[in-house]
Specification:
heterodimer; B: alpha+beta; seven-stranded mixed sheet; six-stranded mixed sheet; globular
């Protein structure tokens, strides 16, 4: 097992390098550069070139990339062009906020999705199944940024119950939770739909198997059978859960944009428009590393849960 | 299970019940900027940076008087009580500085502070040179070459040539506290604890989220001590987010509400503030290629546009028709011959005279537009209407939308770059706050790309002479008259398709009192209070 884990970590290095090269190349392919993006609209080409030279953005791209790589190897992710704060500070704050949102919406989505999926499977064909399946379809079909806007209109503007935007970083826990409520719901919709359907089909799959019939014939109670089904369905559900959590973290750009939630999605969005290359590079690197670790954790957890899966 | 549900329900309703109370006298503003403007002195994020940060925390030697809305703001004494150009050496300006003014950190404002600030922008080898701040503002101080301290309360600024435009440049340089900078010796740290002389002082900066300021009750001008106790600025680049934040009471004031929402906002009791200001929204035409190299064709396009339709129907009266660089009533408007009212018949006739349209060769052009952007208003909707207007008279204009920063980058490089070679115009909004922004940078032959931004390029020796004469004229009334003559020539030459002047809409909660919207890109927040 440890050999497996070590090998996965080694493989991560070329993955992360590749990701950073791609981001660097794409960021420079887009017209404009960090200096042009933060200078006033009135500034002329000559003025911008002068500032670019002062910042070292006139060096050839490979040279700029290698310089950046060298600093990263020493643990320095550089400074944002726009705010001149160390990138690591921005990334840490943004990642914390995104993680909190991702965890909260995952708990909501997985908890509710799990429950709905099981209800649908155990009450297959009946009204409860139809309702649960309908909820799942709505969840997967509705664009979550649209849902976010609707939530704002209903709960912020019309009812005035919850705030429309921001994260109230230092307004205290309750204020933070209030700001988190709507984006959590908006972000939870899609995984809710996916998990419900996956759990439903996994549970139905297990329920149709012979050993379940055997358990019933043995006279085991509903609760015990339920436990057996859940344990057997767990591995396939876990893979989906892991993937969905990854999407929550990386795919929250639109929800964060709608709610101005200061997470990695919002930061990336801003950095792209500002062509803030150090921030782009830093955030993508950290996110990519996070995904690598997350995937590894899911794989390891799976083989712990299901002894039949053996990792080499 | 039932207990779980009950507990959750109680918890959720608690969450909802605790509303966020706004302190009385706290003005919360939603800006269009995507981040908090640089607080280290020479603000970024363009004029919005000056508006909410640069001119609130700091002040220049010469300032705009933004207290009235019925006339263009004049230049008035700021941190300088008086200034004059030396009769014996017209490249030297002597500024007498205001006494008994303190920075927010308690240190005294004096000539050393002015010299320090100037060097932070212009002196590249100085320890206190601010590369970022300098990049933002140095080009606005193009003529200012050197500074000398004459005594504790007098400085002398030297220019490269005699120019009457000096006050229009000095207004953009805000003075920072050298004492505060010396404590941290780093501009980024200074930006976290800034110190200026302005009516508001920074109390807290949360990057990308908010900037909190409090009233400077020791501000040197007792008539302009802020009525509000606190000012909080939020970056809110998303249109719908700003609107929702205002409607739900999270902020009291938003910049640029969506024009569609103004009737609904008014009905709900919100105030919509409007006023003309030196803004124009145009298509800057490429003058060295067909079809826009022909004056008749350019005039035809200007007669083809239904400006009243755009402003009334499309933008709910948040703009006025634009038929020149400046608007009627502005001292630089003059008396242009062409009035460019909506006249498709005349447009078709002019086009015919030029040899286009009507079965003959089509007047084709490709215009680069943006999808959004500061000052760009509603570019997609407006341009679609303009495209239709032009098609109706015989033009075939293809619109290429790009992202705002991309448009600016392409524009700065000019038309003669590989990626812009096929273009015939760009749709960018401009300011004409002073003679350079209004005329110098676009219409003087020395401003051709890449030195400055005359991309068309427009070269007219008569206009060159008039602009240079204006720069030598120290009498403001005469200077305005000369620039009005420039304007008349420009309107006649029609190097742009003139479309509209924005009216700077902003939406305020009914609790906001005392705001006077000046005819300016900037505002005076000291008269504003927020009631219950």
């Amino acid at each position: 097992m440890w050999v497996y884990v070590a090998r996965r970590f080694l493989l991560a290095v070329p993955t992360l390098l590749g990701a950073s090269v791609i981001v660097f190349a794409m960021a420079h392919l887009a017209p404009g550069d960090p200096i042009a993006a933060v200078m006033p609209a009135d500034a002329s080409q000559a003025e911008i070139e002068a500032v670019k030279r002062a910042y070292g953005f006139d060096a050839p791209l490979p040279v700029q990339y290698v310089r950046w790589l060298g600093r990263v190897a020493q643990g320095d992710l550089g400074r944002s062009i726009a705010t001149r704060r160390p990138v690591i500070d921005d990334v840490r704050d943004a990642l914390t906020n995104s993680l909190i949102l991702a965890v909260a919406s995952s708990v909501l989505a997985f908890g509710l999705g799990f429950a709905l999926g099981l209800v649908a499977a155990f009450r297959q064909g009946r009204a409860a199944d139809k309702v649960a399946s309908a909820v799942a379809i709505v969840g997967v079909s509705v664009p979550h940024y649209w849902a976010g806007i609707i939530l704002i209109i209903v709960f912020s503007v019309q009812l005035n119950w919850l705030p429309a935007m921001g994260a109230a970083i230092d307004g205290g826990l309750l204020d933070y939770l209030r700001h988190m409520a709507l984006p959590t719901v908006a972000l939870a919709l899609i995984p809710l739909g996916v998990i419900t359907r996956v759990v439903r089909s996994a549970a139905l799959d297990i329920l149709a198997q012979d050993f379940v019939l055997a358990l019933r014939a043995k006279g085991l109670g509903r609760r015990t059978i339920f436990a057996h089904v859940v344990k057997n369905a767990a591995p396939q559900i876990l893979t989906v859960v892991g993937l969905q959590f990854g999407f929550q973290l990386g795919g929250s750009v639109l929800v964060e944009a709608v709610f101005s939630w200061p997470g990695t999605g919002y930061l990336l969005n801003l950095a792209i428009f500002q062509r803030d290359i150090p921030v782009l590079q830093g955030v993508i690197l950290v996110l990519a590393a996070f995904f690598v670790v997350l995937n590894l954790a899911v794989d390891v957890f799976q083989s712990l849960v299901d002894p039949r899966i053996v990792r080499h | 299970m039932r207990r779980f549900v009950t507990v959750t329900a109680v918890f959720l309703s608690l969450l909802v019940a605790i509303g966020s109370a706004s302190a009385q006298g706290t003005l919360r503003i939603g800006m269009t900027a995507s981040d908090i403007p640089y607080t280290g002195g020479q603000a970024d994020n363009g004029f919005e940076g000056f508006r909410f940060v640069g001119y609130q925390i700091y002040e220049p030697l010469i300032a705009w008087d933004l207290t009235r809305g019925d006339r263009l703001p004049p230049l008035v004494p700021g941190l300088a009580e008086s200034w004059e150009v030396r009769k014996d050496q017209p490249t030297k300006w002597v500024f007498k500085l205001r006494r008994n003014v303190k920075f927010h950190d308690g240190s005294a404002f004096n000539a050393d502070a002015v010299v320090f600030t100037f060097e932070s922008i212009k002196k590249k080898d100085a320890a206190h040179f601010d590369p970022y701040g300098s990049g933002q503002v140095s080009f606005r101080l193009a003529s200012l070459k050197a500074i000398k301290k004459l005594d504790e309360h007098t400085v002398e600024i030297e220019t490269d040539k005699p120019t009457s435009f000096v006050p229009y440049q000095v207004v953009y340089m805000v003075i920072v506290s050298p004492a505060q900078w010396q404590k941290v010796k780093d501009w980024r740290k200074f930006a976290e604890q800034p110190s200026g002389t302005g009516p508001f002082r920074v109390t807290r900066l949360v990057p990308r989220e908010r900037l909190e300021l409090e009233a400077n009750k020791q501000y040197w001008d007792p008539r302009r001590r802020p009525k509000a106790d606190k000012l909080i600025l939020f970056p809110m680049p998303e249109l719908t987010t700003r609107l929702a934040a205002l409607r739900s009471g999270q902020v009291d004031w938003i910049e640029v509400p969506p024009p569609d929402a103004t009737p609904q906002l008014k009905a709900a009791g919100f105030q919509i503030a409007l006023n003309s200001y030196p803004h124009n929204w145009t298509h800057t035409l490429r003058l060295d290629k067909e079809p826009w190299n022909n004056k008749l064709v350019r005039k035809a396009a200007n007669y083809a546009i239904d400006r009243v339709g755009i402003c009334k129907s499309l933008l709910n009266d948040t703009c006025i028709p634009g038929t020149g660089v400046a608007y009627k009533g502005h001292p630089w408007f003059g008396n242009p011959k062409e009035t460019y009212e909506y006249n498709p018949t005349k447009a078709k006739e002019l086009l015919r005279q030029a040899g286009f349209g009507d079965g003959k060769k089509p007047a084709k052009a490709v215009h680069l537009i943006s999808t959004s952007g500061s000052g760009q208003m509603l570019p997609l909707a407006m341009n679609e209407l303009i495209q239709k207007n032009l098609r109706d008279v015989g033009f075939d204009v293809d619109l290429q939308p790009v992202e705002w920063n991309t448009l600016l980058t392409r524009w700065r490089g000019g038309f003669k770059t590989p990626e812009s070679e096929g273009l015939n115009a760009w749709n960018i909004s401009w300011n004409f706050v002073e003679p350079w922004s209004g005329f110098g940078r676009f219409f003087h032959s020395k401003s051709v790309v890449p030195v400055s931004v005359n991309t068309m390029p427009y070269v007219n020796p008569e206009v060159d002479k008039l602009i240079e004469e204006a720069e030598r004229t120290f009498d403001m009334a005469r200077q305005d008259a000369i620039l009005a003559k420039v304007h008349e020539i420009i309107v006649d030459d029609a190097p742009w398709i003139f479309v509209a002047h924005d009216l700077n809409p902003r939406a305020l909660s009914p609790k906001v009192k005392g705001f006077v919207q000046p005819q300016s890109w900037f505002v005076d927040l000291t008269s504003v209070s927020v009631g219950r």
